[in-house]
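Weekly puzzle thread! Below is a chain. First person to post its structure in token form gets bragging rights.
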Amino acid sequence: MMHRIELGPGADPDGFRQAVRGLIARSVPPQEVVWATQGSPDLFGEAIAADAPAVALPRAVGELANLVVCHRDPERYALLYTLIWRITHGERGLLEVASDPLVHRLDMMAKAVGRDLHKMHAFLRFRRVEAEDGERFIAWFEPDHFILEATASFFVGRFPGMRWSILTPIGSLHWNGQELAVGPAAERSQAPGSDDVEQGWLGYYQSAFHPARANPEAMRAEMPKKYWHNMAETQAIPDLLRSAPSRVRDMLEREAAMPIKRNPDKAVAAMSEQDPKTLAELNRIISEAGPLVPGATQAVLGEGPLGANVAFVGEQPGDQEDLQGRPFVGPAGQLLDRAMKEAGIDRSRVYVTNAVKHFKYELRGKKRIHQKPTAGEVKHYRWWLDKELALVRPRLIVALGATAVLALAGKPLPITRCRGPAEFQGRPGFITVHPSYLLRLPDETAKRQAYADFMRDLREIEAMVEKRAA
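Winning reply:
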């Protein structure tokens, strides 16, 4: 007698588990079972009851089954039940026999689903929309397999404070911050095409792209083109690949040798004996002095007008700043520019510089990893910073982060307790976080709150400047 088992559409792990219990309890062999999904024609005998006790199986079998039931192969349930039947009938160690055709096929199916899950985690992009009930984030994704509900816990755990929806051709997920709802299939036209966050993300991607590691073949293998139209950064890939060879040549030409060991105290003492009368003279001394920290190709000088409304002081140049020779041109600088514009701060009246004038890094392979300057290194550069600010004469000095505070105040101060108006050796100042801190926050809710706090600081800074100008 044939037994027809009808399961839910897509992946139905709970229904499969209950069916297996009933079939094993009644000793129904695989060849007498027909597996169907809801809506399939009823061609065979009665459905089997599923109120039987659990089947004792190795943990690895359960883990394999949880992946395979998500596969699109219509034979997935039949293959899994055959595996379980053999394991419960004398082949307890079957999963360890990798050469067995059934085990091999199921293993390949599980790996395919695992790759699909990974791609959904990596390539799904939320876009912000304004709805009648407030802000919401919507994403469109086209999975290869029935993985939507299997991936739900990942996105709930990753974005618990956001209200979001994930739309796919096989179903949808909706999270309101407290409850998860599963909805029907959707169409791509129901998802937004872009939002105002994507330009910032695009700039970050372009600045982080390493031309020497560009491998189009490997990129397409890891990120197939079917995902490209959902991801903002892929818009930049063709131009980045075209410019990669010339960028690599530029990097090789500018690659700096590690600096010769020198005595920083003597170097600073020798420089301080000079008395530059202009910013140009000071910059010449800085450029000729050589780095007092390991690394760097060149000194990155301050930029902006004399008598600036505000002087923003950061920690040190980053990789992009070192390559381009200009301060705040990397991801943190782009974020600072955007925030200043939103706060109404006139960028043409702002001076930007760093406490340390050279990029300190550690070389790992071909990648230059940022290294935080020590208190001693900050002290060595302090002569330059004091002289620079005395020549620029800003109305207000803003310390961005702990290193800038140490350089300006001469001692470490906690940002959280001292954030706000301050005084640096008799000069009016303000303490806030460095923009790179906002970029490092992994949680979207925390990132939005930190950005709002940063904007509040910038508006207060603008108000202080206007008050001093009145």
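Puzzle host: Confirmed. Bonus trivia for everyone else. The CA atoms of residues 170 and 185 lie 5 Å apart.
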